[in-house]
Amino acid sequence: xxxxxxxxxxxxxxxxxxxxxxxxxxxxxxxxxxxxxxxxxxxxxxxxxxxxxxxxxxxxxxxxxxxxxxxxxxxxxxxxxxxxxxxxxxxxxxxxxxxxxxxxxxxxxxxxxxxxxxxxxxxxxxxxxxxxxxxxxxxxxxxxxxxxxxxxxxxxxxxxxxxxxxxxxxxxxxxxxxxxxxxxxxxxxxxxxxxxxxxxxxxxxxxxxxxxxxxxxxxxxxxxxxxxxxxxxxxxxxxxxxxxxxxxxxxxxxxxxxxxxxxxxxxxxxxxxxxxxxxxxxxxxxxxxxxxxxxxxxxxxxxxxxxxxxxxxxxxxxxxxxxxxxxxxxxxxxxxxxxxxxxxxxxxxxxxxxxxxxxxxxxx
Length: 364
Ligand code: AMP
Fold this sequence. Notes:
Helix content: 25-40%
Number of strands: 15
Distance between the termini: 25 Å
Number of helices: 13
Low-confidence stretches: none
Largest sheet: 6 strands, parallel
Number of domains: 2
CATH topology of the largest domain: Rossmann fold
Mean pLDDT: 95
Order of helices and strands: HEHEHHEEHEHEHEHEEEEEHEHEHEHH
Structural class: alpha/beta
CATH superfamily of the largest domain: Phosphoglycerate kinase, N-terminal domain
Strand content: 15-25%
Bound molecules: adenosine monophosphate
Shape: elongated
CATH architecture of the largest domain: 3-Layer(aba) Sandwich
Strand order of the largest sheet: 8-6-5-13-14-15
CATH class of the largest domain: Alpha Beta
């Protein structure tokens, strides 16, 4: 059983049917298909399965109780929303219980949704005894990679944080400050730090309400003896466009009318040196607007530095949609130690949060 996309009720474009021939090819055998995950006909198909036979169920998200998010008109009041949600929670348990009767063993391999308490990713585990519920190979390897970095890193351990906003990564940065030796900050979030320290950032991305937070992170790093590396120079554009005119300035001297869109040469050199001396690397978030060729050099260089130090024996874990996309784009995915498949799930686990899909199975 699986979900696909975010259907609102039964929507054929989110059917799992197109998956069937691919699954059959990969498994090298016929796969049966139930065009509804619930219902008498499907129950019969499940009950009739013989050892070795496989049944694929239609998208479990065709039922809103899977996610537990009611489909309501926009005019619904808060009270109506609350009532609908708790009614749906009851139905979510029923759905999970029913699906659990189809199979003897529950294997969860959906790491990308492990941070959600959905019917088939978490609730269903309650209906299996401990020895009949388990992770698949993917979740197992994701956990092994993250635990290695979090709990057993070879030092020096360097975390590289990038991407647009510091607000998305506060908890992660705070947790990492207890663990890393070096913290490298790049990407759009840089400029909030620079502004907080009194620098000139022109029109660069800035979260004006996070300046205090940026300063407190800088102080926390000092207190904990973590070396914090911010970019020293900035590749600026006069517009957010691949055709923009560019110049390079010190990171705290971005002229009015310009915005910092990538790290520049001196920063690339410094960051690459720190990465080159590390034994464990965690990378989340691009160093610039890497989707635009003109502003992709910093992200490419960092990806290459990580690949190079991995070849020398360091352990590197790459997570977050954009850094993964970058590593794939430059053909470096097999030159780093582990590329995570979970954006939000990885972030939350690395923040130290408990993920419902994980605790449902390992019970902690
Ligand atoms: P996130 O989803 O927070 O990891 O952010 C990824 C996005 O940040 C990418 O789409 C990048 O284009 C964007 N980004 C990185 N650096 C900058 C920058 N200096 N200015 C604006 N956007 C940036």
